Amino acid sequence: MYNRSSFPFTLDCVGLNTLLTESKGRLASPAQGGSGVCAWQISVPKDLRIIFYFQSYNIDSSINSYRSVPECSDQDTRIELKDSPTDPPWRTYCERNMPEPIATDKSVLFVQFKLPKSDSKSWFTAEYITFPFEHGEYGYRPYVM
After folding, report:
1. What's the CA gap between 90 and 112, in Å, rounded?
2. Which domain holds residue 127?
3. What is the pLDDT of residues 39-64, one digit of tens each?
4. Is 10 helix (H, G, I), strand (E, B) or coil?
5. Neighbours of 75 (CB within 10 A)
6. Distance of CA 111 to CAs 80, 132, 137, Å?
7. Which of 141, 18, 119, 10 is nearest to 59 (CA)?
8. Number of structural domains in the chain
9. Which CATH number covers residue 125?
10. Does residue 139 belong to any structural domain of this protein?
C-alpha cells in the first residue's frame, strides 16, 4: 500500500476539468455543502494505466431517491467515471457503500462529482496511482518486471 505522505498534493474541487498529470494524486470533493459539478481529468503518459480508489466516501442516505441496488438518475448525487467529458459514464456510483478500486485500460480518466442542491451531506476523497503498460503484438498489456 502507498504511504499517504508520498502523494504530491490533494486537489480539492475547483470547478470543471481540473487537470492532473502526476503519476499519483489525491482528489477531494467539497466538504459537506455546496452543489453543482466538480470534474477532474487525470491524464498520464500513454504507456501508463490508472488505478482509481476511494479513501473516504459518504453519499447521503437520507435522500429518498437512493436504493439498495443503485440505478442512478440525474437527480441523484453521483460520481461518474468517463473516457472524455462528452462520453457517457462507463461507471457511476450513487450507492451508500464504498466502491471497490478500479483499473482503467486507458491513460486518461475523467471523474465527475454531481451534487444536487437537495444534498448537503455527500462528499468523497479518492486517490489514483499509475502502473506501466507495454505495447506488444496484441496491444497494451501490464508490464511484468
Report:
1. 12
2. 4-133
3. 899 999 998 999 999 998 888 755 54
4. strand
5. 14
6. 6, 21, 31
7. 119
8. 1
9. 2.60.120.290
10. no
CB atoms within 10 A of CB 137: 5
Instruction: Give whole-number Cα distances, 145 to 98, 107, 127, 134, 142, in Å.
Output: 31, 20, 24, 11, 10
16 lies in a domain?
yes
Does a structural domain hold residue 140? no
Over range 102-115, report the average pLDDT.
91
144 within a domain of the structure (yes/no): no
Share of the chain above pLDDT 70, in %: 70
77 band by pLDDT with thresholds 50, 70 and 90: confident
pTM, entire model: 0.78
How far, rounded to the nearest angstrom, does the alpha carbon of residue 32 sit from its chain's CA centroid? Answer: 18
